[in-house]
Amino acid sequence: MSACRVRTPHKIRSLLKVTGLGAGVFSAYSVWRGDEKFYNNVFMPIVRLIPPETAHDLAVLGVKWKLFRPAHQDTERLRTQFLGMTFSNPIGIAAGFDKHGEAVQGLQLIGFGFVEIGSVTPEPQPGNARPRIFRLNEDKAIVNRYGFNSEGHGVVYDRLRESREQEHPEQRVMLGVNLGKNKLSLDAIADYVQGVKRFGTLADYLVINVSSPNTPGLRTLQSKNTLQTLLTEVLKARASLPANEQRPILLKLAPDLSEEDLREIVEVVRVKACAVDGLIVSNTTIDRPPTLRSNNAGQLGGLSGPPLKQRSTAMIAKVYKLTEGKIPIIGVGGIFTGEDAFEKIEAGASAVQLYTSFIFHGPPVVPKIKRELERLLEANGYANVQAAVGKGVDKYL
């Protein structure tokens, strides 16, 4: 009898070890392969117990180490031409996730068709005080007031150069670099000019970000006269570079612009000296819809996620109409499903970007959106993404 009593606890411990090991292996495999149910029911609820900025930092680290590899093969229907380049699919990661260019290759492995890093400022700066990012779980939204925390041009440039050197020629990442200005800069235009000159050798496109709500005075750069001066100088700087370093330049707009402001911006970018190659619509909003339920809704900063979706889609349609479809648009704001992406494409976007849905649902959301988007393109008779761009613009005005 005593021998039985001795062996039984040992057997239980062994069973627990084997069970625990099995659960660990299963969990690790589910995370690596991007099991959607596992993420939504187990992994992401655990992640939401972690403070938001800590969770963000860990997510970037995990992607950098290439721990996440959801399985999905891009099809010809998703392949698209944009900014004179070919993208394997039109789904990109928006600036704000990989601020310092640490996880570019890992983001491509997850399935993004292009990766935008930043915002990057000329000099290193810490950004705003913590806490500076807040989950609105009931609304599946986020409020952030990071304030262009950046390691600076020098560090990010060296990191991206090393990443480029490690790339396989057949797996080259389509890379955008989002440029910002330093908070205490005395010459904002010089900050953007410096970014254009620095990153032309590494990026596939560059973004002039004058629409973040978290840097004092930044959005005033969207005013007509100031914007005209800024874009003229930025494009002059690009023209001064060798031909192989002259990259497409896009302007990122705020969703809180008035109708008049929007018309004036379109007037500016249609002038030859200010003719950027594309527009990103839109950044986060300072508005707070009355439908928000979360206690964090009152936090200062930019709101992203589903509460921004309709506003950004309508703005895409307005910009597409105002530009007569002649200036390519990247659509951003509240994309959680393939239908959300499809709506922005029909409204006039040539490509789209995710941020908040990636934070709430993790890597599996990328292949999910691509699958759903492909089915919608086929069901609506579109041979490819380009065929759908702007075809439903009037529905979203």
From TrEMBL:
One Gene Ontology MF term: dihydroorotate dehydrogenase (quinone) activity
Cofactor: binding comment: Binds 1 FMN per subunit.
Cofactor(s) required, per the database record: FMN
Annotated catalysed reactions: (S)-dihydroorotate + a quinone = orotate + a quinol
Cell compartment(s), UniProt: Mitochondrion inner membrane
Biological processes annotated in GO: 'de novo' pyrimidine nucleobase biosynthetic process; 'de novo' UMP biosynthetic process
Bilayer disposition of the protein: Single-pass membrane protein
This protein's pathway: Pyrimidine metabolism; UMP biosynthesis via de novo pathway; orotate from (S)-dihydroorotate (quinone route): step 1/1
Family: Belongs to the dihydroorotate dehydrogenase family. Type 2 subfamily.
Record protein name field: Dihydroorotate dehydrogenase (quinone), mitochondrial
UniProt source species: Anopheles minimus
